[in-house]
Amino acid sequence: MNPLASPLLTDLYQLTMLHAYFTHDLRDTAVFELFVRKMPERRNFMMAAGLEQALEFLEGLRFAPEELEWVSGSKLFPPEFVKHLEALRFTGEVHAMPEGTLFFPDEPVLRVTAPLPEAQLVESRLINLIHFETLVATKAARSVLVAPGRLLVDFGLRRAHGAEAGLLAARASYLAGFTGTATVLAGQQWGIPVFGTMAHSFVEAHDDEASAFRRFAQVYPHGAVLLIDTYDTEAAAARIVALAPRWREQGIRVKGVRLDSGDLAVLSRSVRRTLDAGGLAEATIFASGNLDEYRIRDLLAAGAPIDGFGIGTSLVTSSDAPFLDAVYKLQEYAGRARRKRSTGKASWPGRKQVYRHCRDGGALDHDVVTVEEDRRDGEPLLVPVMRNGRRLHAAESLDAIRARAAAQLARLPARCRGLEAAKRPYRVELSPALRRLADAVDRQAGEMPALCR
Q1: CB of 428 within 8 A of CB of 366?
Q2: In this structure, how many other beta carbons lie within 10 angstroms of the beta carbon of residue 404?
Q3: What's the DSSP call for residue 96?
Q4: What is the third-level CATH fold of 3-136+323-452?
Q5: CA–CA separation, 197 and 135 (whole Å)
Q6: How far is the CA of 31 from the CAs of 87, 119, 231, 355, 369, in angstroms?
Q7: Geometric angle at alpha carbon 171, from 67 and 397, rounded to 5°
Q8: In this structure, how many other beta carbons lie within 10 angstroms of the beta carbon of residue 380?
Q9: Which residues lie closer than 8 Å to 198 by C-beta, 6 or more apart?
Q10: pTM (whole model) above 0.85
Q11: CA distance 412 to 101
Q12: Is residue 58 within 8 Å of 90, Cβ to Cβ?
């Protein structure tokens, strides 16, 4: 049994809700939408990701015998409820924004339409999957914007908050435009290009640095990237230049060097001069070490001749904005629109669609959120992806998702491409039809007898 696919990977209140729904026969069709209430600080957009994992979870939803045994043994639920769980499957439909799509607050990125118990049970895991990959994809896209054409590699596994997070971060950053990852399993699972250099421990295990470089280059004669900051970075660059002519005679090519500490702007310029003067102009400089999009922007603005970056901790934790205010709310039940009206947490009712409008030339201009039946001009962003509990199409390739993400970023308005919050945020309009529906739902709630509210 894969615990990450278990329906027990949820909050207890999902099971208590199921028990209550079963007890009172609340099984009519429900519509839930997953959206983000507000933009995190210093963000101008979000990039949708995680849909593939969400659909896998929904298709495979079922309680295994050992899980039913635990539910029964917990003494929290009666035997007849456990019997209901034995036959439970996801039988609903899903509409979603394709992965790689840019979206904004109040826009549903995913909509679930299913019998109420099914739609309720999947809430926690759907938010968990969509939230995390969207968070990382958005963070990665910012580095892609500030370092166009540069090699960008996910280095985050060792600092990720768990193995699944490290693996999914590799996927999310790649679909957002990263070149690849250091996480080998992501290469095996999804065909993501994997990258690696050498460890400081390899250098330290030798009595002298030159021997370490020579031995590593002998193992990888056609693509050695040598780590040169274990001791004296500039002296190591000079040492490689001195060794290179002999290596060249042996068919060994120095592909590049890696800097992992110190003043990267100063060191990269010094190392570049040394490599160029020593006949290694083709050798690249790769930098790592507590990097994020802000440091990369500043390094490139300072003219640092760095060809690629390894980004780890800040990426997999989205350190400057470590969470999204992502929620999954009931918008319709038994054919009637519903909404939450709590102060500061109100939701817009009904099944919705998002229409995107572009300027001449293709640049994104604004979005309109409206009720599903209010057909409008523009590109509808929510598309059907699942019906009767089964996907409508085969899993989309990461190459296709990457192409969509790149096209979306290319169309982003200039004011939204920076790392600071835009003075004029991207415009999202709420349609008159949606506002009228909200007013109608509120009036109806106000007319209910007090005991029914």
Answers
A1: yes
A2: 19
A3: E
A4: nicotinate phosphoribosyltransferase (3.20.140)
A5: 27
A6: 22, 8, 60, 19, 16
A7: 95
A8: 14
A9: 216, 225, 226, 227, 258
A10: yes
A11: 11
A12: yes
**392 and 92 in contact (C-beta within 8 Å)?**
no
Nearest CA-CA partner of 35 in 94, 90, 104? 104
Q: What span, in angstroms and rounded, lies between the C-alpha atoms of 328 and 32? A: 6
Residue 290: DSSP 8-state: S
DSSP state of 98: P
Distance of alpha carbon 139 from alpha carbon 176, whole angstroms: 9
Q: Please check whether residue 167 is in contact with residue 186, taking contact to mean a CB–CB distance below 8 angstroms.
A: yes
- Tell me how far CA of residue 371 lies from CA of 31, 131, 353, 374, 382, in angstroms: 13, 24, 6, 6, 12
User: Token pair for residue 122?
Assistant: 């999947």
Beta 110-115 vs 29-36: how paired, if at all? antiparallel
CA distance 303 to 273: 13
- Cβ atoms of 434 and 350 within 8 Å: the answer is yes
User: The dihedral of CA 52, 58, 59, 63: what is its sign?
Assistant: positive
- Beta carbons within 8 Å of 17's beta carbon, 6+ residues apart: 117, 120, 121
What tens digit of pLDDT does each residue of 178-204 get?
Answer: 999 999 999 999 999 999 999 999 999
Give helix 293-301 / helix 264-277 axis angle, nearest 10°.
50
The residues with which 286 forms a beta bridge, in sequence order, are: 258, 308
Q: Residue 447 corresponds to which tokens in the numbers above?
A: 């007319």
φ, ψ of residue 239 to 5 degrees: the values are: -65, -40
Nearest to 206 by CA among 237, 246, 236: 236
pLDDT (tens digit per residue) in 244-278:
999 999 999 999 999 999 999 999 999 999 999 99
The three-state secondary structure class of 210 is helix
Rounded to whole angstroms, the Cα distance separating 138 from 102 reads: 9
Q: Where are the domains of the chain?
A: 3-136+323-452, 145-317
User: pLDDT confidence of 344, banded at 50, 70, 90?
Assistant: confident
**145-317 has CATH 3.40.50.2300 classification:** no
- Looking only at Cα atoms, what is the longest distance across the chain? 91
Name the nearest CA neighbour of 67 among 59, 58, 77: 77
